[in-house]
């Protein structure tokens, strides 16, 4: 299929993990030939719930392995096995015996995805989802103050690690075609989770802030409408607009709510009033009314609602396998080389695969290269028209891997993570001091714009737009996370830029896509969780849907965008063609709970929220420990782990207790089980419990606070933090990214730029402006040295 982006690539997936198999599924989706190499009794993912009520097979396996072939590697004759491995471009290694595969080509890219890596103090730890989320800082942020923190839902850290592995593998292939030779890609779920839940840890590093669970200040709340929950995000500068839109004008001058600080103190009372006033509304109609008034809101969709949602239907999202079974649509859409799933999940050992040993390198087209740098993407040049988190994270990933990233900033609409319209929070700045240039000292902006150049252009002016076009023509990739239609208004849409440079790749990441009834809805990480169905899975028993982390889906959107760009770059490398890339962040996020969505679509039943408890594990929860806001997460997945937990607790009697003898017994008496473990844990140190239980073979982890993440022993051992000096904010350790490539490693080379720090250099060296043209740009105020008042 030569029109596929990854045509000609051969991938052997020997993993038995969600992360490895999701990485390989992405390769299969975009044209690579992927072989799932299974043990004689089949991959363990074949036994992963949920299961189909009709066929009895694993829907998670279906979600991860559609489009692949299956072989039993040990059943192949030795000559066939050697030929298969020698012809592979990418091999995803088995988790348990990564060195068991031999005879790989020197040009092969090997990928190892593990919970913690193969060295360091936690190298031998078990890492199910609740353990990874507890250590990442995500879990501490979730749930109600005073109650057990919530880990989230599904196996999102594994999917995110698989996405990171796909990015790393494609970057290594990019380097191979430029420089020759394969290399090893090392990805851990723990580092991926830490990279997507970093802000509070970096805030602690910057300002010494010690956050508590009561300190969460996101300006959002939820109300129950007549047909579902709605999340409403009320920025301070949208307070009056919100009240006017919903007919609550009398609250505008109310002493309880007029001042933003006092309003936050009375948030519960405010939302009780909003609930009473709007509870009879229809959810989607209310969301639409608020969005038209520029108030961010989203319905919390139940999983059973997604297959019949009008927006997804109009976008043609859902697809069917040859046997009629439904699957989720693409994570991202490529205009020239769209996803095409070749078939359903393979039967064990299905098909015969014979690869000839020819190199898969013919027909490569070398694009013009920028100045040489370091990392697998050195020479690639990226122009960013982005703000906040998701878009900048995409550029940050590419920059970490060696690309030259130019962050275009407006003098009158400043990146909200530099300077937002809210009252400055001292905790955002080093030592709590905003300084004379607070927009250069914000930990938020400085976290996501490492390695980048800052160029100020006023795109509202004719001169600014003309310069932006010249700059874009000198770039390989343009990234935009503005609302749909913005690029066209600026004359910077794909078709316009393609006319300037035919091999251009333009990537847009709208929350809901570029078309459909919701396409113009603004969104943030929490409201995207609502729209993707995730929040319907998270919450306490009989409680409201909950969001997780500090905008969890924003960095995931950045990762998906980087993956999409690298996929398009592979096609360009082979053919010389650019294309338009669309990353609908909500649709991409749905893949992280793909098995659960397929189950709900098949059964017509929604999962019931029940805190941290799972049908297939008991206990599976957070338990109180000694100290303020101290908790330990414990997961028992089988009877062996239960016996080991009892022994570690010094309670062998519990393993013989008929209430807890089997998994079914423990589920029936889960409240009693929780009380027993909480009584044991409550006066013990959380980290000591985790160390003790992991040594006994029981998955456990302290629920880490931001300070703990900043000082995490495993992250520190693996060099996750990098010290970078900022000219105004000072020198601090910066959290890194999870991509480790053996031959062309990524890096954090310099701190985030000051506002407009590189404008003249970018205009001259990259855009090619003469000294007179640069002088004219300043004279016409197409650029600036500081944000304009009100910007």
UniProtKB/TrEMBL annotation:
Region (Disordered): 725-756
GO molecular function, one term: CoA-transferase activity
Keyword terms, alphabetized: Transferase
Biased composition (Basic and acidic residues): 725-734
Domain of life: Bacteria
One Pfam family per UniProt: CoA_transf_3
PANTHER family xrefs: SUCCINATE--HYDROXYMETHYLGLUTARATE COA-TRANSFERASE
Full protein name: CoA transferase
Source organism per UniProt: Falsiroseomonas algicola
Lineage of the species this protein comes from: Bacteria, Pseudomonadati, Pseudomonadota, Alphaproteobacteria, Acetobacterales
